[in-house]
Amino acid sequence: MKLLIINGPNLNLLGLREPGIYGKGTLSDLEDFLRKVGEEEGVELSFFQSNHEGAIVDAIQAAYGAMDGIVINPAAYTHTSIAILDALKAVSLPAVEVHISQVSEREPFRQVSYAGMACLKTYMGLGFEGYRQAILCLKDHLAGKGAEA
Ligand code: DQA
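# DQA complex -> structure
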């Protein structure tokens, strides 16, 4: 089982960026944590981060036929990008949305998620743990025992 983990803009600055909201862990800390999760769960993970909307669209398209599912934190593009929504719908791979912060308790402009409209489930406000939950959700879904809804 192969999953692609996509992180959007400014998530390369985790650790430095607003640590009161996003925590002190860096992107490489997150990837190390998830690599361990992958080993424990028998899931092969690939990581992609970009600050560019089109590059994220390209990564989603490239996942078609190569990956079994996608975990995506589109960061600010969550709230603006119909292109990312359309790419997720186009490849039709099972996808789960993650946000490190509790987006539902933040500014009004963060209350729409376009990407989330193409996702099985959203985890938010759990920090790095949300990504682990997303991997477990996709693993169950792909094994045919999905409890998502
Ligand atoms: C975020 C929430 C978004 O609103 C924000 O633009 C981000 C990070 C999160 O992980 O909490 O960049 O996706």
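# post-check
The chain has a mean pLDDT of 97.
The chain has five helices and five strands.
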